[in-house]
Design goal:
Elements: E1 4-5, E2 12-13, H1 25-31, E3 40-41, E4 44-45, H2 66-69, E5 88-90, E6 93-95, H3 98-109, E7 114-116, E8 121-122, E9 127-128, E10 132-134, E11 139-144, H4 149-161, E12 167-171, H5 172-177
Parallel strand pairs: 11-12
Antiparallel strand pairs: 1-2, 3-4, 5-6, 7-10, 8-9, 10-11
Length: 182
C-alpha cells in the first residue's frame, strides 16, 4: 500500500483521494469553507473533536467518535439486560439459560416465591443484574453455568460496592447437588 504525506503538516496518511487533494483529514477540514465542508452549518464552520480522544469528527453535531461512544455508560445498551444466551420461556418470562429455567422450576416445586431479574445495579462503567430475588429471605441468587473470569471480576466489584446486599452464586455443581437437572 502506497503511503502519502500531507502537503500542509507533513503527517503520513494512508490515502490521498480526490477530496483530500494531498492533505490529511484535519488539514482538509481546516481549509474547507462554506458548503463544501461537512462541518459547515448555519454559516459557521465547526471543527468538532471527540471529547475523549480528541479525534476530528465528521459531523458537526457529534460529541464523541464511534469507538468512544461505545464504552461504559455511553453504550446504547447500558443498564439493559444482556442479549446473549440460548434461553427459553418459563411462565411467560424469557430466561437466558436452561439452568435458570430449571432453578425457577425448583423454586416453584418448593413453593418459594421469586422474581426474575427485578433490579439492575449500577457499578460505574457497567451494570449488574442478579438472576433471581427471593422475597422471603430477601436475597439474590446468581446462576452460573460457567463461572468465567470476567464474571468473577464483575461479581467482586458488585460485592465491594454493595456489601449490604445478600447474594449467593449457584454454579453447575451446586445446582446438581440440589437435585436440579444440569
Amino acid at each position: 500500500m502506497k503511503k502519502y504525506t500531507c502537503e500542509e503538516c507533513g503527517k503520513q496518511i494512508s490515502w490521498c483521494g480526490a477530496h483530500g487533494k494531498g492533505r490529511c483529514l484535519s488539514c482538509y477540514f481546516k481549509t474547507l469553507v462554506g458548503k463544501g465542508n461537512p462541518n459547515h452549518k448555519h454559516g459557521k464552520t465547526y471543527n468538532n473533536h471527540c471529547l475523549d480522544c480528541d479525534k476530528l469528527l465528521g459531523n458537526y453535531r457529534s460529541k464523541r467518535c464511534k469507538s468512544c461512544a461505545k464504552k461504559g455508560k455511553l453504550h446504547h445498551r447500558f443498564g439493559l439486560p444482556p442479549v446473549h444466551g440460548k434461553g427459553q420461556y418459563y411462565k411467560n418470562i424469557w430466561m437466558r439459560s436452561r439452568f435458570e429455567t430449571e432453578f425457577a422450576k425448583y423454586l416453584d416445586k418448593n413453593k418459594i416465591k421469586w422474581l426474575y431479574e427485578p433490579k439492575v445495579f449500577n457499578l460505574g462503567n457497567c451494570t449488574y443484574t442478579p438472576d433471581f430475588y427471593l422475597s422471603k429471605t430477601e436475597e439474590y441468587i446468581e446462576i452460573k453455568g460457567y463461572w468465567r473470569e470476567d464474571a468473577k471480576k464483575k461479581f467482586k466489584l458488585f460485592k465491594r460496592l454493595f456489601p449490604e446486599v445478600k447474594i449467593e452464586v449457584l454454579t453447575r455443581v451446586k445446582l446438581g447437588k440440589m437435585g436440579i437437572k444440569v
